[in-house]
Design brief:
Domain Porphobilinogen deaminase C-terminal: 233-305
Strand content: 15-25%
Number of strands: 13
Cofactor: dipyrromethane
Distance between the termini: 57 Å
Modified residues (S-(dipyrrolylmethanemethyl)cysteine): 249
Order of helices and strands: EHEHHHEEEEHEHEHEEHHEEEH
Strand order of the largest sheet: 2-1-3-10-4
Shape: globular
Number of helices: 10
Radius of gyration: 20 Å
Helix content: 25-40%
Structural class: alpha/beta
Domain Porphobilinogen deaminase N-terminal: 7-214
Catalytic activity: 4 porphobilinogen + H2O = hydroxymethylbilane + 4 NH4(+)
Length: 318
Amino acid sequence: MAHSPVLIGTRGSALAVTQTTTVANALSELGGFDVELVRVRTEGDINRAALSQIGGTGVFVAALRDSLLRGDCDVAVHSLKDLPTGAAEGLTIGAIPGRVDVRDALCARDGLTLAQLPEGARVGTGSPRRAAQLRAARPDLEVVDIRGNVDTRLGRVAGLVEGAPGDLDAVVLAAAGLARLGRLEKVSEFLDPSVMLPAPGQGALAVECRSADAAEGPLSRALAAYDNNAARLTVTAERALLNRLEAGCTAPIGALATLTEVRLHLEVVVCSDDGTRIMRRSAATAELDEDGARALGVRLAEDLLAAGAASLTDLAVS
């Protein structure tokens, strides 16, 4: 008797389907089972208002989680930077595969870099984190709030997509998403983390499942084999920091953890929305497990709060 395929939940965007297909193929190979993609429409796909007005990037997650809990799918694939930091009852992040490029990328007309953009150039982003760091690096730029999938946003840049609006000089997107879609030729500059720290979890995927399914069986074994320890430790530190600050996914906060054989290093930046005030801190630990990573994030968050980071943006003060 044939076994039912494992149902993999995904958003319907080209980027989501591309990255979910990669996950589905890997799990199928590791677990020896068939897979089937289940497309789920989320509030973030339907509502075109600014993310900060409709609940942040968590709006991309809720419908997928509901589908998991209802049993409409067996796992759901998320861009990890979109995933709220709080625990979801009944659900577990069963795997975090190897992380790819964490950087943000500038896609500008005429191949211009950030330094080469003329005064008053219009740069699009839907991220308060990117907007604040753009304003800090180039206060003379006009930052324009935009939404839409990757190709829609690329089409806003003059000369990048034939027949598209082309009403902006540049947009900033995640390098990981551009790579997954085969759009790296549109990048005019990869932004160094010293200029623009990425979002916590950027460049990583989260494969979420029901907690009971993470305990045993072929799916559980496939998820365990797919999980990447370095990716899990770095994003655990970054997300623990964000969780302690009680800052949402759209807060103007960048964080990046890096792992060597002997230590886990975490760097963070907290910005005011207008980019005129910035606080940057870093810390490290030699405790190279999830508890150590989580403790590092919490410790750095406490340092930021003690230094007055809550005066820059809306953070926890307790």
